[in-house]
Design brief:
121 residues, mainly alpha
Length: 121
Amino acid sequence: MGFNGSIPGAARLHLVDGVALLRPEEQVFTAMLTGFANQQLARNLARTTVEGRENTVKAFAAYVNNYPWHWTPAMVDEWLGDLRSLRDLCRSTIRSYSEAVRAFCHFVTDPLYDWAVSTTA
């Protein structure tokens, strides 16, 4: 690869080896969101798109009251179902929310960005 963690969104750019975190789960999640935003901006997505996706991921995290490494597909299904039935959101909105969470999950599990390795070490 030759990137050495210097690609936008890489874990090494957001977490420093050997530095203890005060609130590790919260700080790692925040760093993941920052990395996700950087990765999307590097792909030339509009800032409004990036912010919308980040807000969607935060809303999902608040709904399940858990961090990404504890999320399950059932949690996403329940959340999307509740949004559709309780808030009567249109299908295109539900799809965009689903896509935002999917894109975030893909980002944090992509070996190129090292988030899975960084958060388990």
